[in-house]
Design brief:
The chain is an alpha/beta fold. It contains eight helices and eight strands. Helices cover 52% and strands 15% of the residues. The strands form two sheets. The chain has a five-stranded parallel sheet, with helices on both faces. A three-stranded antiparallel sheet has the order 6-5-7. Helix 1 crosses helix 8, helix 2 crosses helix 3 and helix 6 packs antiparallel against helix 7. It is globular and about 60 Å long. The N and C termini lie close together (12 Å). Bound molecules: zinc ion (ZN).
C-alpha cells in the first residue's frame, strides 16, 4: 500500500507516521531526511542539493524525483511506502500519481491550538528536553533542574509564518486528493491514541479496497 501523510508542523505527524510504519509494514520516506542524508553521504543528488541550498534556492523537483525514484525501488519498500514532505506542488502530484498512491492521510488540526502549544514550549539548556511552560517552576527543567529557555523558532511570529507556508503548499494537494476520493481527513485535535485509532481504521478500509482492485 502506497501512502502520503500530510500534517502541519506540530500536528504530531511524525508520531503517527511511526505507528503507521509499525502496523502496515510500509517504509517511511521523508524527503527532508532523504535530502539531509544525501548531503551527508555526498551523493550526486546530495551535492546538487547542497549547492542549491547554499545559494538560497529551493531544491528542484528533478532532484527530488531522481532520489524518490531510486528510493521506492529499494527492498524495504516492497510492502509500500509512506511519503512525507511531498507532494507540495502540481508537478509533484503528477509524479506521485505515477508511483501509484492508494490513500492520503491528512491530519487536520486547529492552528490556534498548535500556536498555543508550541509557544508554551521550553527547552532545557542542560538535558535538551522540551517541556510545557507550566511544568517548569522558576524557569527550571522538571527533569534535571537545568535552566530552560524558549527556542527562537518557537515564537508566535515564526510559527505563524511556518503555518502560512504549510497552508499555501498543502491546500492544492488536499484539494486534488479530495476530488480523487483518496483523501482521508483525520481530526488531529484529539489525544494521540485516538488520532491513530482513526487513521488505523481508515487505512484498513483502504487496504481492503486496494486488494479488490
Ligand atoms: Zn533538563
Amino acid at each position: 500500500m502506497n501512502l502520503i501523510i500530510i500534517g502541519a508542523p506540530g500536528s504530531g505527524k511524525g508520531t503517527q507516521a511511526e505507528f503507521i510504519v509499525r502496523d502496515f509494514g510500509v517504509c517511511h520516506i521523508s524527503t527532508g531526511n532523504m535530502l539531509r542524508e544525501a548531503i551527508k553521504n555526498g551523493t550526486k543528488e546530495g551535492k546538487e542539493a547542497e549547492k542549491l541550498i547554499a545559494e538560497g534556492k529551493l531544491v528542484g523537483d528533478d532532484v527530488i524525483f531522481n532520489m524518490l525514484g531510486k528510493r521506492v525501488l529499494q527492498d524495504d519498500c516492497k510492502n509500500g511506502f509512506l511519503l512525507d514532505g511531498v507532494p507540495r506542488n502540481l508537478a509533484q502530484i503528477d509524479y506521485c500519481e505515477k508511483l501509484g498512491i492508494d490513500c492520503v492521510v491528512y491530519i487536520d488540526v486547529d492552528f490556534n491550538a498548535i500556536i498555543k502549544r508550541l509557544t508554551s514550549r521550553k527547552t532545557c539548556r542542560d538535558c535538551g528536553g522540551t517541556f510545557i511552560d507550566s511544568d517548569c517552576i522558576d524557569n527550571r527543567c522538571p527533569k534535571c533542574h537545568g535552566e530552560v529557555y524558549q527556542r527562537a523558532d518557537d515564537t508566535k511570529e515564526v510559527i505563524e509564518k511556518r503555518l502560512k507556508t504549510y497552508t499555501e503548499q498543502t491546500a492544492p494537494v488536499v484539494d486534488y486528493y479530495k476530488n480523487t476520493g483518496k483523501l482521508v481527513k483525520i481530526n488531529g485535535n484529539q489525544p494521540i491514541d485516538k488520532v491513530y485509532a482513526d487513521i488505523n481504521c481508515a487505512l484498513k478500509d483502504a487496504q481492503e479496497k486496494a486488494k479488490q482492485c
